[in-house]
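Reviewer comment 2.1 asked that we show a complete input and output for one of the modelled complexes. We chose the pyridoxal-5'-phosphate case, as it is the one discussed in the main text.
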Amino acid sequence: MAGTKTKSIVLKTNIPGPKSAELMARRKAAVARGPFHGTPVFVDHAHGALIHDVDGNVLIDLASGIGVVNTGHTPEALVKAIKAQAEKLIHGSFNTTPYEGYVALCEKLNAKAPGKFAKKSFLANSGAEAVENSIKIARAFTGRPAVIAFEHAFHGRTFMAMTLTYKEKPYKTGFAPLNSDVYRAPFPYAYHDVSVETAQDGFAALLSMIGPDKIAAVIIEPVQGEGGFLPAPREFLDALRAHCTKHGIVLIADEIQSGFGRTGTLFASEQLGFEPDLILSAKGLGGGLPISAVTGRAEMMDAPIEGGIGGTFGGNPVAAASALAVLGLFEDGTLLKRATYLGLTVRKTLMDWKDRFPVIGDVRGLGPMLAFELVKNRSTKEAHPDAAKALVKFCYERGVVILTAGSHGNCVRLLFPLVITDEQLAEAFEVLESGLKTL
Ligand SMILES: Cc1ncc(COP(=O)(O)O)c(C=O)c1O
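Response of the prediction step:
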């Protein structure tokens, strides 16, 4: 493969190249085993949808650093905003000496989040931190302990977020005891015969088993990310909304992966007619800088007492400036339109692949947040995680970065930067398609 040159992909060495391999050896010696690498390639720099590695290879990015650089790598507007802010104030600590960027970002999020009610926001650093804080807010507001999360959910790696997460290995292995008062409800999964009715019945049974007056919150990803890009059907979300409203339970939408344009609207909830009480943003919000937010009903957001939520770095001024620039890039709707268009065309390709490649059992997602599930056998629908792993390797060796997903690791998810060009996408898909032919 070395020496191959196509329009965007440039392969000067085998992948991983010698410099990446050398860095990986240093990484193994110096860095804890825990952090995993989907693609064992060290990045030097990246622009738009292209990653330039330390060996001079250029790869097309269909992963966006796990759904973060929705607005592309290093867009000019972000770099400019980050530089300008860095020259003025890098850290103030909102808990010590506040600054305008934090407030301005909260104002924007309050205006953009779904729901025609008075809203307030709170900023933190990571998705998991937004999840943790949303549960604190719900408990402070309701005075109740229990939380319901769903099968196949992923909410992060800190203790409450990890407890809310579904998959045991690797996320919970060796980390017990987990938090108490967390319950699990079925998530509709048509491909594996979990219908909306089954999921609704399961939820209703859980509600009466726990007792609605003990439940502080229900947390749901409107489109599950790590779980395999499962969109929640509208009628299921409607039923949840009705239960939560009836019983005074705080309904939390975790849009950490599905938010910030990923599905063709700023929040996936907008397309699903969903009005959660609290909505969580991270990943795409900062366009690459670490920042997250909880946005929701003002009276709920004000439930924790002064000093009850906060942190040293939350809503850092440079990250807030970057997030404001991200919102600026979405402002005129062009990027969202492009995202919707990409969703339609990519879905067509994936459906065509499904017709041609029996290894693809299901294609699903919302807008351009799309995945396909790989199975050993279409009748038994047995998961084929080895095929997903092989496809990832096939792709990165040929200059395309993709990610797996799913509770059995047998889905391939597409999280390309929304600024990817038609040519780059076509080139990457040629590689993906030849990979599918080898399975
Ligand atoms: C839906 C969802 N919630 C929460 C998280 C946790 O975010 P972070 O890794 O920033 O803590 C993730 C990360 O993948 C996610 O996809």
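The chain has a mean pLDDT of 97. We note this here for comparison with the apo prediction described in Section 3.2.
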